Amino acid sequence: AMDDVWSRRQNITCIHPGSTPIFGNRRVRRSWRMILTNPQSPAVVCRNATAQMYGDVAYVLCWEQINETFLAATNVFVREDGRWRMIHHQAAAAPPPESPSDTPSVMMQ
Length: 109
Description:
Elements: H1 2-5, E1 13-15, E2 22-23, H2 25-36, E3 45-54, E4 57-66, E5 69-80, E6 83-93, E7 105-108
Parallel strand pairs: 1-6, 3-7
Antiparallel strand pairs: 1-2, 3-4, 4-5, 5-6
């Protein structure tokens, strides 16, 4: 399912917490495959997701909760063939949100 989220046409990028940037479709997909197929990878809960849309580009800001640790995450999307496809993901350690919520909000511009 994660593989289906990524752009088919754009050169994608990803920065995992504590990692250097990963460039290119094959390398980014491989990094996610390693994380998601590792039985020791912890569960991640998305909190306080907010989307911003600008024509055919959008981004989602959220907190990723892993046990008691929070990461601030940015996911950038482009519209390809009528579907939103991710071109960049970045997550880094951050303080928890003031009031954790699972309800997303969307802001169109």
